[in-house]
Amino acid sequence: MSKDLYENPLITRYTSKEMSHIFSSDVKFSTWRKLWIALAEAEKELGLPINDEQIEELKKFQNNINYEDAEKREKETRHDVMSHVYAYGLQCPKAAPIIHLGATSAYVGDNTDIIVMKQGLELVREKLISLMNNLSNFALKNKSVPTLGFTHFQAAQLTTVGKRAGLWLQDFYFDYIEITRLIETLPLLGVKGTTGTQASFVELFDGDMEKVNDLEKRVIEKLGFDNVVALSGQTYTRKIDYMVLSALSGIGQSAHKMTNDIRLLQHLKEVEEPFESKQIGSSAMAYKRNPMRSERVASLARYAMNLAANTADTASTQWFERTLDDSANRRISIPQSFMSIDGILDICRNVTAGLIVHEKVILQRIMSEIPFMATENILMEAVKKGGNRQELHERIREHSMKAGSVVKDEGKPNDLLERIANDPVFGLSVEDVKKLLDPKDYIGRSADQIEQFVEEHIRPIITENKNCIGGEVDLKV
């Protein structure tokens, strides 16, 4: 690749070869030819004067694209589809008269876009399943490891390391449901003609409406699809693009949320992303272990989420049966959205396969905060011994304020438990109070929730798609 021209970082640094290939020229133009073959076959089957020799000639050159001829022609015509019709005809002189018969540019352009997006969604789905497998394993492994929960990034009740990971997992599960729905329901444009009325095909078949209807059914069946848009202008409604990129944006949101949490946890030294033996965290500060993979995910996710807005703008500004101001934008926003999400999923799979949990650091932070969380249990225990709840509640409030001041203003350890044990109104010894400080008594149903969620929602997906699991992710940088 020439180094004196701009290189797209999505291709050189982030996306996989598989996703880059899906949006390649070879896939695009060989799919155009596949569409022309399907149309010719269906037209022949319904009685138009097309012979087997012509169709065999078309099939012979489906994947052998003469790019130079097409590019030379496009410089003259300024029309990409007609340039490729011309180039295909040079290779297939017998079939040249029937290539693109009755069709308009959107027949190959729009149907190809849907076919390619579906292939992209299938690859995304595979990587989502692999990521969910990583997260479910991590969540189950750490389902009972208590950790300090945060609301507003302020200390709250305890949760578990696994339960928190389960929240990330559930977000990706919802993304999986939406991606799967799109794969199963995505419709082709079909065979619609210049303004969506199929008038040119009605003319071809001498006014036989049933044959035109049958033609479309045969074409989409040959392409492996069950669904077709019922109504269209020249193009399918651009709301479909928005639906697809919104689903991809959803994955970006989930990944951004997860990796933001990991970045914050890495600051707290509780959970860290993988860090290789020769990896450099900072050019100046050799001791640093920056969460660079999670930061990269957040960066790409912002880009992917914003690309969805392009399709919203495009869908809302189409004029009547079509306008061409969608074309240049879609050539960029759709492939780059897929490539961004593909890169994100690869990085997330790499991170979640090697997350490091520092349980001693986590426990230390829990024990610095648990005296405040234990006050409700202490209150109940003191009431059992004959204390007055309202009076005890007020005393706990007073002691908590003073203990908090000791921690924040004087930098000393939390002495709330000693204060309570030394207050005769509670009737509790230091030993009595310490018995109420086992972190596992404060995690509620965290472990059960994770087991139930994985068993009911994730395990069936993993079991059904074992071929998607495994394989190391080779990050380019």
Please summarize what this structure is.
With 477 residues, this protein is mainly alpha-helical. It contains 19 helices and four strands.
Can you offer a commentary on this structure?
The chain has 477 residues and is mainly alpha-helical. The chain folds into 3 domains: 9-98, Fumarase/aspartase (N-terminal domain) (Fumarase C, Chain B, domain 1), CATH 1.10.275.10; 105-275 and 286-359, Fumarase/aspartase (Central domain) (Fumarase C, Chain A, domain 2), CATH 1.20.200; 375-436, Ribonucleotide Reductase Protein R1, domain 1, CATH 1.10.40.30. It is 64% helix and 4% strand. The protein contains 19 helices and 4 strands. The protein has a two-stranded antiparallel ribbon. The longest helix has 37 residues, at 105-141.
